[in-house]
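User: Please predict structures.

Assistant: First:
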Amino acid sequence: MSQGDGTSLWAVTFNRDFAVGFTALMGNRHAIGEAFQITGDEILSWNQIYQTIADALGVELKPYYVASEFLAEAGEAYGYDFRGSLIGDKSVSVVFDNSKLKRLAPDMTTTIPFHKGVRIALEYVLSHEDKYEEDPEFGSFCDAVIDACEKAKAEIIKIKK
């Protein structure tokens, strides 16, 4: 299940690449009192991000798009706060100008592209499965949202006929 239509853009940065930018700013007198975005150069749509994760897992991506406002309202009823993270953050494209950072951290670049970073992260998670638990409550919430959307779609189609 994905909010919106999956086309908004997002900056993805692997932690090792982030560390290059972060350590270049630490103790740098030109960085004191300044604000910086530390992101890599790779910009992907949410559709690309989810497809890359599905590919790394060896599964078929079956996206189901849900309006961000609907997801935020439904989530609130179930105790999930999606308003800030979806509507205020992930539902619009987020592309940063890294030129200010690169003036102080010229080595800051994407050395680990998302498709490789996902595989590194998955390898770690799968090798530590005992530390992660499934979240059946969230799974049930997702199923309920999809069911509600499908029922609403069926009702609208029924009215038209």
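Second:
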Amino acid sequence: MQPLWKTDPPAPLGSPFEPEGRYDVAIIGAGITGLSTAVMLTRAGLDVVVLEAGEIAQLATGANTGKVSLLQGQRLAEIRAHHPASLVRAYVDSNRDGRDWLTAFADGAGVSYTRRTDHSYAQDADGIETVLAQHAAAQEAGLPTRMLTAAELSTPFPAVAAVALEDQVMIDPVQVAEALARELVSSGATLHTGIRATGVRVLPEPRVLTAAGPVFAEQIVLATGSAILDRGLYFSKTRGMRSYCVSFRVPGEMPTETFLSVDSPSRSIRPVSEADGPGQAAQLIVGGNGHPVGRSDSEKAAIDDLVEWTRQHFPGAEETHRWSAQDYESHNLIPFVGAMPRGLGRIRFATGYGKWGLSNAPAAALRLTAEILGTPRKERPDWMTTIGTRLTVPADIARGASESGKVAAAAVGGWTDAEKRSVPVPRPAEGEGIVANRAGLPVGVSTVGGVTRAVDAVCTHLGGVLSWNDAECTWDCPLHASRFAPDGTRIEGPALKDLTELPRTGRR
């Protein structure tokens, strides 16, 4: 599966890796968070290195829908339900500053984008109360939203009410990331792609560990989606969510505005034009059907459902690309940004964007930059202080406890299910994977590209039994969202080690 934004080969950016290098700041991850932070710090005169295991915009950034909206579905209403209005306003202000920084950068870099009206809408009457709550929270936070009835909407898909916010941004996320990388390299900073970080140490001096050797820096930033260190246990304070997108060529008229449902099953509708996309003919992106990573009966069925829904409401729609994205949502719905516990003030991180990375990521970069540069608090935006000193409320604890219960159930269920089938097992059909038991240990057997492989099916993070993702042909952990390729190579998540590949007879 390939995102619409990645139709062209990645630009050849970066330089050969030199171990033992010394820098002011080392940043792990070349998505919007890492690259924005690197550009800000480089502009401030610091010597920065960015390390990326894959290519530019490899994961969440490259799989984004390209929507930069302050409305964000029902997110504002969800936060306001259990937190003061001041926190919602701070969250909106942080996203506004993040968006404004990103668009200002795009203007300077020649990356085009469009502005459209965004809608949080109800698909049936049960969702109207949520739409009203979203409208109230948005207005309380200073956003000029307005309510619309079904007659005023006139959409080809079911929509009985919506709250609308004008002037929201649509942009190609990969074009932005590549432009950030180009500025970074041209300004004299260092960018290494294909270099995977395997750990971070602060004593006797701060350094990033890689398979090719260490990199030393006074400050280290984890811009890795999930914080890859267990300090602070942030893997347990967030949940990994996987959601899906399909792009279509649609005959005749298609929406010129964007929509996100507040009720289930989730539906995100985003038109793409040459001005805010990959330079192709106009297309329509339909997304949704999100779920916790590793906890789905069939990821492929979730994508097929989006295709069926689109063809029902946009007759003649022709699929062009399908893909999925992974993001992390904090239990209190506000991103975690700042210094990591037990890091001696040398390690910082950002996670928990809840699928709104194109505004939350540059906002996080602004805060990380202010902290690293030592900007006095009185000179920082108020939202940084408000978000940084927010209190945990009972609803946050309850949401965390609920997720912990689901994690525990997934942990027990995975081991129990693995006991039900013993090796040897029939060779899985192409694109399929199964978990079986070998001498009391779960083994994952899959066939991809005509090659059948067996791997240790226990996650290298905290020992969860992996499940097979039938859409992307990966092994996914239902505990804390680590993911692995069929041969066991680690893709993303808090796990740092690969799975062990096991011998299997009859492999082709």
